[in-house]
Sequence to fold (512 residues):
Amino acid sequence: MGSGQSLSLGISVAPLWLKVRLLLPANEDPLYRISVETPWLDHIDTWLVHEGQVLRHVRGGDALAYSDRPMQYRYFAFESSMPAGETVLYMRVETVGPMAIPLYISEAKLATQRDVSSGYQYGFLYGIMVALAIYNLIIYFSIRHREYGLYALYLLGFVANSLSYTGQLHTWITPDWGPYFQDWMDIFLMITYSIAGLHFARVLLNTRLYAPLLDKLTTGVTVVIPIGMLISAALNQLTIALLLAFILNSSFAVLFIVLGHQALKNDVPAARLFLICSVTAATCICISTAAVWGLVPYNDFTFKLIELGVAFEAIFLAFLLAQRFRLAEIDKQIAERSARQDALTGLNNRTGFEHLVYPVWHQLVRRKRDLSLVLIDIDHFKNINDLYGHAIGDEVLRCVAALLEHGSRRGDIIARWGGEEFLLFLPDTNEAQANTHAERLRVLIEDAVIDSGEANIQFTASFGVCGTKDGLLGETKLNDDALEHIINLADKALYDVKQSGRNSVQVASEVL
Fold:
């Protein structure tokens, strides 16, 4: 047997008496559990009366020390057997907080099954939220973007609040902290997720840029109301603190929608999904709040609807943040690639060349492997610009870059070194092999033709090569700092080519 009814009358109402008639068949004599599944009610006195005789009087409620309660349980509850026939349950409830009385009477074994089922539900819900919070904390500590940290605090604040107002936090952590402690803990944890959530929304949607007054209002709400609650706590005015907490929670729901609407009007990319999430969560929060105030029926569904709404919001906002993180990473990669790439030719610039070459360089030097560098200069490039214009000059640079890429091998690293100069790094290539490779590239460039519209333009390039033989540069072992020295030697070889007629290849070992 099991049944339940709920009653909700609002905040700071007069003490309430309930009378329930229980009719039990003669052939049943199980153990029954009577429970009021709201953990914040201050005083609950219960009498079981059979045929005019008081069978049992049980006192409980949040005002009693945890050890003095009838069951070591997060709700007011006690178990009792009852005789056949009619037994009358009288209950007097007194509380400063919300007068929400979900009364359940069921066989003890069925009540235990409900507890187990509820435990699985909460474990699944909290598990998702804590996992999302940890994931976003990791992202925050990695990239230091505030929205990820605030989102994690929002989720953790909501989990802590949910654990508190369902009595679980009090059962596990604070059972001996004294009467009335849970009332204050509930209302202050109630506002933690609202404060973190509002600041998360501000930062995510960047409202300061296009809605500064709304941004200041949102910040003000998260400052003024908590200060008022702290003053109420100092004066021991629980009712005022409760009203302020509910005002902040209601403001949270409304401001979430307003912030999303303003973002949508200003074409903020995240606004549409944020608004869908905020409307859903705000609706659920308002229904649960109204249930606690007694404005709508109070039952399992309306009581837990806030958790379902915030869970829905949390999952989709996590998707939004993950999408933002992915886009930020793509932008970062594009920016890094742009910083290392020559805009005209698409080749590496000096920064990109050094970034790619140094890891390979150090590995080759440690293993005493051969390596070579080839420095290339387009012949008479200034004349090309003067005769045909800079647009044709740029086309020549792009053509040479394409020919160098086409003629190079896998593993070779190419860069535009500056102006009309290019640099090749050839791993596992001695100087003689580099000379042969450079000659092949020289022929490719010499045979190239660009149609300017008025004439076919041909051009040549000069090459300076410096490399090792059997891992030695001349008779010297390479060290980690020798890259610049080899580039300088290749430059000297290139200078010798330019002095002796251009359009040829010169190795450094022949001019030293």
